[in-house]
Amino acid sequence: MMLTFYWILALLITGTEVRGINLPGCSHVKPQVWYRAISDEEFVLQCALPDKDATNIYNNSVLKQHEVKWFWHQKDKGHLKAVEESFNVTLQGNALWFKPVRENASGIYICMIREKIPCLKIVLEVQTKAKAKCSGYGTNTLYLLAGNGNSIACPGRKCYSHINKTDVRWYKDGRQVEYRKTRNSLQLVDNEIYLKITYVQDAGIYVCDYDMSDNTTQWTMRTAVTVEVIAKTTIHPPNILYPSSVAILEAELGKPLELECRVQFGFERGTQRVIWKRDNKENLNEKLKQFETIETKETSVCPRYLKGHVLRHVAKLEEVTERDLKSDFICFAQNSVGNATAVIQLKKKQRVFFLYILCSAISILFAFLLCTAFIYQHWIEIVLMYRSYVAHNETTGDGKEFDAFVSYAKTDASESDSAFISEEKFALEILPDVLENKYGYKLCILERDILPGGAYTDEVVTAIRQSRRTIIILSPAYVSGPNIFELQAAVNCALEDKKIKLVLIKFQAFQEPETLPPVVKKALRILPVITWKPSISPAPNKKFWKYMHYHMPVNTTKVLGSCSLKAFSKGCSAWNIDSINFTED
Asked: I want to staple 95 with a disulfide (CB 3.0 to 4.6 A). Which of 46, 145, 367, 443 is the partner?
């Protein structure tokens, strides 16, 4: 013990600047941590300030590894040098791992962590089992049976029997092991870990620390135990899941092909083997490449790979030949208990109907797309044709006198632009000419069909209620003028009578005034709108008139004139087709 003390004292006196390595601020720093280890066993040294209550003793994070720098001063030698990785020394996170630690690893270790630990000196003394007076040193590798009760003992606890020792502090994978209510099957008794039930998560590296002191120094004795969780060794030979017995695969000459063999193995720590053979010969030609993967699924107590695993072994033919079609490909699986085989034979794939099926599928798809495009393009015409021959007459027995009430803005002649059709001309001439003369609908236009003298609002509401549709001709003059009342009245009537529907014609672009009633604003947003285009819409065969016809009532009885509605207030609703006077141009 005195030799060790003088050795450490000598190192402190000589300082840390040797052969070009200069560690400012470390020359007069004294060692803060003192460790002892047993030679030829696994050992870990962490760069962390001493803390008896620490719940983590090391961190294996790669990010931490870049922050830590290690140096060491070997015992009985005067050179300070950087710690470098070797066959038995690795840097992991903020820790230095010795797998195993040798007696010549004794010395003073210096670690630095940027902005956290400027200089930490750690003394490590490695002794043989004989020098540490170990009696019955425990094993450093334990194999625990999953689902059973097991215990983990600290191997170095039986060393230094002549020195008083503190209780053991246990750590698993760097984190402190302690009793938790969530895991009452784990208990710490007499410095050992007792597992009432062993789970696969119990596997890992366990580190046990305890303190002891000699005449001059208080040491921390550290040993490590590697725990693996295993299952009972299988008593069954491998089971080939695919192919079962003999399987026949279709293959195309000149094309690549994969031969798959899926084998279920029970758990064992011995050798398991799967290989493909051609005609029971293991020496396959160079075109047959083999590779394998393991399929596993975890469970809480005993994972699937402990009960066994499924191994997928694949042989790849880069190009199928006539020789391959005549060969038997044998999957051979073997474990310590026995073996199993299965066969795959290749059959030439017939491609007689492939082109025919492909062409038929493409033709059907093209015809379907063409039909869909035609219906989309001519949907209005199809609906109108259906109405003409099949649909029920919507106007029969509904109690309505008119097919549509026309609402528009009345403008002065001086305000109209002679270059374009005015709203008034559109409402009084163009719209009736097509809807009445061509399609036979009966329109109600106030200026034309209602005698003056009544209250304007009453006449409008009565006309709307006697009509199946209300045609609104929208323009800037309409939405900002008094005629907006007619749209509001039409919306209210439509809400009361479901047979009344509104048709909006956007005659000119307009900006909605802020003063519009809410019900009118909502109607302008949700009701269908047909746009009038002065350059193309006037022609009777254009889309505009087809859309108008589409939104008008279904009337299969052709009406050849319009009612002379000047006598609307005198009982025009009682007129019939025989009482109407017709005029031919």
From this structure: 46
